[in-house]
Amino acid sequence: MRPIKLFALLLAIVFTGYVEAQTPKKAKHRIVIDLAHKQIFWNDPAGVEGKDPSLVNRINYMTGEITKTANSVDAELVYIKDEIKPEQLTKGSLLFIHIPSGQYTPAEVSAVTKFISNGGSLFVVMDADYWSNLKQTNVNDLIRPFGIAFDGPNPDSLAGGSTKAGVITPKPLKISYHGARIVNGGTPFCFNIRTEKFPFGVYKEVKNGGKIIVMGDGMVSLYMTSWEGVDDYQCQEFMHDTFQWLLKR
């Protein structure tokens, strides 16, 4: 083979390999973040440009952290900014609902409950009434069919939480907590560090492989690693473990 042709062939091979190496692999899962129901904290970073710098910084921080979590479980992030529809909740998806303060329509409730019943996953968070109450949002309609419901304020409002080693977190994790809402039903795995009487995090696996995690406190899912002098809450580890379990099939 002539040297010039050999050089061209080698260059083509190298270039092809470079292109393939630089082409991002399509994620196996989707984390669908609900932004359509007056969410208190979460937002699309593209939608907060020009707003209060502290808000922008917070959204950028949380988005960066949940992107790390998504990458760790082979998932991409997708935002829902309008009514939730069945076609938005596809196989391999995890619906992420964090402290809504608006109402879900009957059609949305039907779409979400069917999604879970058919093997989909849901991570849903509420917090104390200070942020959103159960009159403002009918979020319980999404989870009540599966025997889980948010209840009133958690009597133990002091800071500090932890998980119990088990199905969700293989080892106990130190997680942020300060005031919360009781969660009834499911299998408890998140507790205040002083008592297991009032769990604020539960999980459930339903028929056909559907999975649910319900949290009555939003701090760990806001990636708040520091609170009241404690700087080592394991938020990223917690979110990785919960999302990994929810997406495992």
From TrEMBL:
Source organism of the structure: Chryseolinea soli
Keywords: Signal
Protein name: IFT52 GIFT domain-containing protein
Presence of the UniProt keyword Signal in the record: yes
InterPro entries reported for this sequence: Class_I_gatase-like (IPR029062), IFT52_GIFT (IPR055458)
Span of domain IFT52 GIFT: 76-151
Signal peptide: 1-21
